[in-house]
């Protein structure tokens, strides 16, 4: 099923992003990129010796969704936890340097900030490639006294937020109590969720935005393909009772399923020669949520998310899409339509 899009209407939705206050609740991750030169093969073992050149911390996980909301012109309000460690302080420092308020990002004593260290190597004349990823993760959950800070933050923000974006990477920020509180406090407003491992827990909200492997895992299927995606999408919609399900399908684009039976296939925007899919799902849900908060239909929001996803996968590393980039993509595709 296809719908036509009005260029003026879509441009108006994008321009409206700037007025939208999006609370981003979830697991904030430090994406640490370590850059090196490949020197030689070690004589001690068949491994490369890398010469350290430098490193950079960027916002990952829920913090990347937050950063995409900001880059698209929305007002991004983070609510969540980091460890009281070097990486946690760096993560908060990056948020603040981007103009994102951090009043509701709480330092948890004794907790390890989720950190994904990507080591990139190459020569002076080649593009550096990722050769290793090393993850640091917290071993324990978040104590009750810290969860109380999160509950209080959501209470305070419930009077000002236009939408809530939940980013659940499985590190303990989102649990049943937090989800129930969000649904109660923000009833009647847009609530979206992206969950790595607990997709079926997110019931009775506006929409979820899983990828195909996440849908397959949730439904107990080996995989999702062209022959099974419709049944899988409708089944997920039924099980969650949500208003919509947006499944990202990599090079195949997206599949949108709406309550009432309507479904749409959306072809990938741009080339299918992808540079890097890191964080693409964060870009998709950020764009989708902003659009819905501004009054877009599910199809309009999904199309905008598809444009943004197509742009961001052509960038290296954890990246964002700006409002101007999104506007240019829309104009290029729809101006002649």
Poorly predicted segments: none
Named at the architecture level, the CATH assignment is: 3-Layer(aba) Sandwich
Mean pLDDT: 93
Task: Tell me the name of the CATH class.
Answer: Alpha Beta
Q: Give the distance, in angstroms, between the N- and C-terminal Cα atoms.
A: 18 Å
Structure description:
The structure is a single chain. This protein is of the alpha/beta class and 337 residues long. The chain has a single domain, classed as UDP-N-acetylmuramoyl-L-alanine:D-glutamate ligase (3-Layer(aba) Sandwich). Helix content is 34%, strand content 27%. It has 10 helices and 12 strands. Helix 2 (62-71) packs across helix 8. The radius of gyration is 20 Å and the shape is globular. The model has no long low-confidence stretch (mean pLDDT 93).
List keywords for this structure.
337 residues; alpha/beta; UDP-N-acetylmuramoyl-L-alanine:D-glutamate ligase; 10 helices; globular
Q: How would you summarize this macromolecular structure in one to three sentences?
A:
By secondary structure, the protein is of the alpha/beta class. 34% of the residues lie in helices and 27% in strands.
Task: Reconstruct the topology from this structure.
Elements: H1 7-15, E1 21-41, E2 48-61, H2 62-71, E3 75-83, H3 86-97, E4 105-108, E5 115-122, E6 129-136, H4 144-157, E7 163-168, H5 176-185, E8 190-195, E9 207-208, H6 212-219, H7 229-240, E10 244-248, E11 254-258, E12 263-266, H8 280-293, H9 298-312, H10 323-334
Parallel strand pairs: 1-3, 1-5, 1-7, 3-4, 7-8, 8-9, 9-10
Antiparallel strand pairs: 1-2, 5-6, 10-11, 11-12
